[in-house]
């Protein structure tokens, strides 16, 4: 990323090497007011590893069970992949920090630069992939509900794969572009606008679905044989709130960080907010852990696949709908 | 290891990637960078890695914390309080949506619907209940789907007043009565389990057919 103007780096050696020491001392004085909140490495690694493992499990389960080869589960897989990329990024970053502390990674500038760029692209790819996967899941559920009888024609497997390919190609291209041109406001602003826009759109989709579900729950409640309580409607509100609340709480701090970093890096208030950057990073990794619980583990079929994977590692996983006498671990 | 992007440092603007990782490297690698700088005396010292550390320090340059009117973490506190308030507000809005119901329909319509629904449920409910092959959730889903079909047919017959058969492929009918056409027994909480494609694809899933010789009855085809 800084290959375009390497000459500037070397142009003024005198200016950089001598004041650097003074600036370091000044810097240390100024930064003590709002010190970086450091998350212990153990916590980082634990959270990242948990996120990676969980999402990997989901991928394995969907790949192994042929009954899960459906558009809905493919979108959940896409979300799992983007969460995994985010956690992987954080893990690699921490490993590099440790290597840097030990002094191993100081010499080879080109290699580190390229690695640096690749990792930044990976993180942005993970962020964009997450957002678009959530959007795809919401759209899939929307089509399931409002076009239920034509769902199978609208959302074929092939179309789902094409949609995923387009989403990931777009995310990959955007991530590389953003990583290359990240210093311009033109990339930061659309990036930060995309986040609330997507969230608002997803919220609208879910509210529409929610209204429909509520009105029909009311209709069913009017039936003599129905046993639906108001409690179930409350559960729907809670579910929706949890889903959107988690999404907001995990991603919004980081997006705000980017905004503040772009527009007021020298403001003391902004600097204090930016000092909790690692907490924001940990929140993003927590999102990678919570997302599977909200989306993937709600599916009974996926849960039964997991049970089979853990209790009967050698059995075939293609047959969830069989009579009880066949559900043996052969 | 983060290399700062020089143009940004000169302009006082930091890149996204820089801020992704700068803080951590800044502190933790500062000592190693200092060692590197102090040990170098020649042009060799002016490699890219040294410059990046310096430029990073420039970027986070003098931030004076004097004369702050509000608490220094005011943005942090304000942001999280705002976020919490927003989430709670959203929850209350959704709860209110559950309490304020749709306008009540006429009794005649209701009773007619009940009749239609009962008849359809009786018709389609039997194979499901007697069929122990299907797992419980698939039975639920299929029932929900059938209720959906039932209501679609019901509404179309009622509102169109024509003897159009259950042309369930016509999507425009669905759009006319979006709020009252489909029917679900679960609420949104169960929508994640609402596995229509799973059910719809049942008969086309070859894995069920070839390996499983124990499904005694063929799956119900829509």
Automatic annotation (TrEMBL), chain A:
* GO MF annotation, one: corticotropin receptor activity
Task: Kindly indicate whether the keyword Nucleotide-binding belongs to this entry.
Answer: no
The region annotated as signal peptide is none
Q: Which organism does this record belong to?
A: Zonotrichia albicollis (White-throated sparrow)
- What does the function comment of this entry state? Hormone receptor primarily expressed in adrenal cortex that plays a key role in regulating adrenocortical function. Upon corticotropin (ACTH) binding, facilitates the release of adrenal glucocorticoids, including cortisol and corticosterone. In addition, MC2R is required for fetal and neonatal adrenal gland development. Mechanistically, activates adenylate cyclase (cAMP), the MAPK cascade as well as the cAMP-dependent protein kinase A pathway leading to steroidogenic factor 1/NR5A1-mediated transcriptional activation.
Q: Where, subcellularly, is it found?
A: Cell membrane
Q: Which residues cross the membrane?
A: 43-63, 70-89, 123-149, 161-183, 189-213, 234-256, 276-297
Protein name per UniProt: Adrenocorticotropic hormone receptor
Q: Which family does it belong to?
A: Belongs to the G-protein coupled receptor 1 family.
Listed A to Z, the keywords are: Cell membrane, Disulfide bond, G-protein coupled receptor, Glycoprotein, Lipoprotein, Membrane, Palmitate, Receptor, Transducer, Transmembrane, Transmembrane helix, Ubl conjugation
SMART domains according to UniProt: 7TM_GPCR_Srsx (SM01381)
State any GO CC term.
plasma membrane
* SUBUNIT field: Homodimer. Interacts with corticotropin (ACTH). Interacts with MRAP; this interaction targets MC2R to the plasma membrane. Interacts with MRAP2; competing with MRAP for binding to MC2R and impairing the binding of corticotropin (ACTH).
Per UniProt, what is the membrane topology? Multi-pass membrane protein
UniProtKB/TrEMBL annotation, chain B:
How is this protein positioned relative to the membrane? Answer: Single-pass membrane protein
Going by the UniProt record, its keywords in alphabetical order are: Cell membrane, Endoplasmic reticulum, Membrane, Transmembrane, Transmembrane helix
For the keyword Endoplasmic reticulum, the answer is yes
Q: What's a BP term from Gene Ontology annotated to this protein? A: regulation of adenylate cyclase-activating G protein-coupled receptor signaling pathway
GO MF terms held by the record: corticotropin hormone receptor binding; signaling receptor regulator activity; type 1 melanocortin receptor binding; type 3 melanocortin receptor binding; type 4 melanocortin receptor binding; type 5 melanocortin receptor binding
**Organism superkingdom:** Eukaryota
Provide GO CC annotations from the record.
Answer: endoplasmic reticulum membrane; plasma membrane
Localization in the cell = Cell membrane; Endoplasmic reticulum membrane
The membrane spanning regions, by residue number, are 73-97
Question: What Pfam families does the record tag this protein with?
Answer: MRAP (PF15183)
Q: What is stated as this protein's family in its record?
A: Belongs to the MRAP family.
Q: What is this protein called?
A: Melanocortin 2 receptor accessory protein 2
Organism (species)? Zonotrichia albicollis (White-throated sparrow)
Per the record, the gene is MRAP2
């Amino acid at each position: 990323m800084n290959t375009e103007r390497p000459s500037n780096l070397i142009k003024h050696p005198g200016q950089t090497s001598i004041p650097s020491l003074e600036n370091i001392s000044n810097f240390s004085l100024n930064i003590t007011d709002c010190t970086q909140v450091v998350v212990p490495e153990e916590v980082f690694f634990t959270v990242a590893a948990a996120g990676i493992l969980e999402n990997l499990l989901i991928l394995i389960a969907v790949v192994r069970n042929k009954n899960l080869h459906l558009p809905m589960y493919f979108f959940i897989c896409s979300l799992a992949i983007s969460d995994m990329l985010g956690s992987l990024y954080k893990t690699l970053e921490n490993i590099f920090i440790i290597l840097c502390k030990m002094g191993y990674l100081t010499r080879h500038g080109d290699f580190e630069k390229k690695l640096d760029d690749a990792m930044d692209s990976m993180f942005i790819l993970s962020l964009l992939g997450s957002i678009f996967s959530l959007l795809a899941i919401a759209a899939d559920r929307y089509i399931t509900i409002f076009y239920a009888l034509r769902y199978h024609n609208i959302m074929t497997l092939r179309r789902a794969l094409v949609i995923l390919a387009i989403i990931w190609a777009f995310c990959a291209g955007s991530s590389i572009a953003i990583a290359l041109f990240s210093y311009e406001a033109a990339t930061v602003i659309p990036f930060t606008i995309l986040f609330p826009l997507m969230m608002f759109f997803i919220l609208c989709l879910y509210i529409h679905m929610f209204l429909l579900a509520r009105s029909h729950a009311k209709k069913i409640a009017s039936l003599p044989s129905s046993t639906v309580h108001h409690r179930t409607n409350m559960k729907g509100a809670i579910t929706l709130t949890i889903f959107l609340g988690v999404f907001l709480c995990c991603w919004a701090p980081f997006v705000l960080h980017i905004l503040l970093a772009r527009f007021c890096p020298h403001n003391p208030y902004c600097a204090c907010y930016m000092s909790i950057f690692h907490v924001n990073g940990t929140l993003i990794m927590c999102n990678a852990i919570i997302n599977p619980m909200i989306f993937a583990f709600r599916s009974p079929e996926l849960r039964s696949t997991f049970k089979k994977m853990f209790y009967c590692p050698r059995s075939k996983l293609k047959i969830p709908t069989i009579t009880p006498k066949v559900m043996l671990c052969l | 290891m983060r290399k700062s992007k020089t143009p940004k440092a000169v302009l006082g603007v930091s890149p996204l990637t820089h801020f992704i990782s700068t803080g951590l490297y800044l502190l933790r690698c500062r000592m190693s960078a200092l060692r590197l700088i102090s040990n170098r005396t020649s042009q060799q010292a002016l490699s890219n890695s040294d410059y990046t550390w310096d430029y990073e320090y420039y970027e986070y340059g003098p931030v004076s914390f004097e004369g702050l009117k509000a608490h220094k973490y005011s943005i942090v506190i304000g942001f999280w309080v705002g976020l919490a308030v927003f989430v709670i507000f959203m929850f209350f809005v959704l709860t209110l949506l559950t309490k304020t119901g749709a306008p009540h329909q006429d009794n005649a319509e209701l009773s007619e619907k009940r009749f239609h629904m009962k008849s359809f449920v009786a018709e389609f409910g039997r194979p499901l209940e007697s069929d122990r092959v299907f797992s419980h959730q698939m039975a639920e889903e299929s029932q929900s789907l059938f209720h959906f079909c039932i209501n679609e047919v019901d509404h179309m017959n009622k509102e169109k007043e024509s003897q159009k058969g259950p042309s369930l492929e016509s999507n425009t009918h669905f759009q006319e009565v979006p709020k009252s056409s489909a029917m679900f027994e679960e609420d949104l909480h169960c929508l994640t389990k609402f596995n229509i494609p799973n059910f719809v694809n049942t008969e086309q899933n070859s894995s069920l057919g070839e390996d499983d010789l124990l499904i005694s009855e063929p799956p119900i085809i829509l």
